[in-house]
Amino acid sequence: METLELLRAGKLAGSQRLNLSCGLTEIPSEVFELAESLEILDLSRNQLHSIPDEIANLKKLRAIFLNNNQFEQVPEVLAQCPSLSIISLRSNKISHINEATLSPQLRWLILTDNQLEALPVSMGNLGKLQKLMLAGNQLRSLPESMTNCHNLELLRIAANQLDTFPEWLLSLPRLSWLAYSGNPFCDTFQGRQVGSSSDASSLSLVPWTHLDVGEVLGQGASGIISKATWKTAPEAAQDVAVKVFKGSLTSDGFPADEMQACITAGSHDHLISTIGKITDHPEQKEGLLFPFIPPSYEKLGYPPNLDTCTRDTYLPDAAFIIPTILKIVKSISAAANHLHEKGIMHGDLYPHNILFDAEGTSYLGDFGAASFYDRTHKTIAPALERMEVRAFGCMLEDLLDRCTSGSDPDAVSEGTVNQLRQMQQRCMGMVLGDRPLFTELSAEIDALL
Q1: Which of 164, 213, 306, 364 is deepest in the core (most CB within 10 A)?
Q2: Is the pLDDT of residue 193 over 70?
Q3: What's the CA gap between 29 and 4, in Å, rounded?
């Protein structure tokens, strides 16, 4: 409410960002007085159901967030905003999108948790679209016109009503991060590997009372991760991380699918692998146990921002020497290969989901966007793996862009850098079939060590 009072008093003139979440039923007229400056407008968690035409006067507006409101349609007037490239309408009541509603300028569209049964054919006109979030709707198909969305890199279609996998997605040259779990087609699409892992059958069942839960280590869309002590015997204990799932829809899909992927993935030296499953939670919640990763490990990167859209961000002083880069990519290519051998696509292979230490020892985690597929399918299986290889290539590109010699000017081998650059370019090639598989990448990396 304080921000609203400042706005009405004229004390926010020249503001580039504005956040108003105070039960609004209409947009205050004073918002439109910021036409010459406002770039990011967040009107989430209100009671809005429409937007006045004056919004088009916000000539510099590039991002608008309308999450958790009462919209039943995407406001058509948003297409009149000349600079708008990011629209978020998560958790509304949207059941329909008119053909002329979406501007070709869009780069990032979030429609998670709505009531959409279909998308307009005009989706194919969104040639600049890079990120599209559609999880938690009622979509029965996707328009094939979207084959024209050549810049689409991240797509979330989990938790919908798709009866068949849209195979034309495999023709999108930049698609790298895909999540589709929780659709009807998944029952037949994923093959026989789900739940058949020996790791799953040997998973320890851990009563909640055997855990001494301590500090919160992190909180994601699907659950809360805390440090805990697992009392394995009367006088024995080990430090673990426990993730208690919230049970609600996330931007990537259902937590139950994430749990299944974690369990089926089994154990690997460079995965944050599941070591137990919680039973008897006091609130009947589901949860998994993972090894506790010591504080000496840190995130390799940080999530994308409004400018980078699909690419991770890094601390300003982030720098990596070649031996560290080689160790990271060796670890992650091996982990990804392990997953794909089990018919699991990670779906979110990003540096911000990787923990590493000063030596480059790395662990891949966060299975929130993971999807299963039939590893025996002769065309779809290698295509999905090569799709994820592009995500690996993006990570490698980031690391090479921040390559340094450190304190030793001879530490950067120009020949090794050139070979890694060639590998990165092959991973990110526009022709999916020309990209290497993870087994090939692992062999090439081993040859450089």
Answers
A1: 364
A2: no
A3: 11
